[in-house]
Amino acid sequence: MQIGIVGLQNSGKTTLFQTLTGQVTDNPKADGSRGVVRVPDKRLDLLTEMFNPQKKVHAILEFIDIPGLQVSDTGKVKITSDFLNKVKNNDALLHVVRQFENDAVPHPEDTIDPVRDIEFLETEFLLNDMGMIENRLQKIEKDVQKTKSEQLIRELPVFKKLMEHISNEVPLRLLDLDENERKVISGYQFLTIKPLIIGLNLDENSKDKADELVASITSRFEKSQLIVIPFFAQFELELSNLSEEEVTAFMEDMGITESALTRIIRRSYELLGLQSFFTVGEDECRAWTIKTNDTAQDAAGVIHTDFYAKFIRAEVVHYEELLKYQTFAKCKEAGVWRLEGKEYMVKDGDILNIRHSG
Fold first, then answer.
1. Hey, CA dihedral for 335, 341, 344, 348, is it positive or negative?
2. Could you say which of 1.20.140.10, 3.40.50.300, 1.10.10.10, 3.30.450.20 is the CATH number of the domain covering 2-110+194-271?
3. How many angstroms separate the CA atoms of 52 and 333, rounded?
4. In terms of CATH architecture, what is 123-185?
5. Residue 75 has pLDDT above 70, yes or no
6. Is the pTM for the entire model greater than 0.85?
């Protein structure tokens, strides 16, 4: 799963990317810098303490620093088709919006106004989707009478539904679509259907106003139901250069219980409809990524492709139950350790041991 980081020049998006991934480059790639990020999970940390394995493996996400938002000769930010095409290839978007003041790093529009910056990109994405829907709808209505195509007959009511919704300037991610409707539009890569997080980049002088600023933005975009997470890009970058012990001490001194980057990563994971199950043992404790409502057989296939076809049963106990009873033997005695078939829907935090043939 891939998350694209977008934002105006000097918003701090590249600083955020570098902090998330640990990658620093003076020569960003034309199609965007890519980096893999571990998904923080305290459950995996505690399981690792419990089993003391040789290796601990986190679930991962891929982040891409998407270039392309440039200032034109007239001094205005311009949206290019190249930029939009790069955005389309991502499963979710993280829009970094500037709130910090720094005269040495001028804003492309000369003033700091996060509402304006959010509106700019949201409007462009809405117009892009509206144009795609309108063009497709016109073609369907023109061709369906001629061809009587079953595919077009299926598409017509769905695209009418999309058009009615987006005409109200509301992103498609808020439209209730069933599984069949999503299949119909799966190949169109609409921008406003992608899960979105707004990362509000503050400076330390704005620390006490963070909640107020977030409330103001979410209120302004109430119709779009934006998720806004405040963070301090420069502060987080400095933290990333410290040892784990130094970070813990520094955050305690600042009264911070959790890094904003942790919230951004975890929220991105959730917005993509992802969840984690675990495998544990002396060799390895690992968090595996599956989609919500995936079955035990689906989970087996993530571990190894052969396990899907050769699946017999899954031994299952939830993380909370193992934490409570401490050993598998005591979980069995308590009746919380069980065998499940291939149709069992795995829950976030389940610990699985797959029984398979061959």
1. positive
2. 3.40.50.300
3. 24
4. Orthogonal Bundle (1.10)
5. no
6. yes
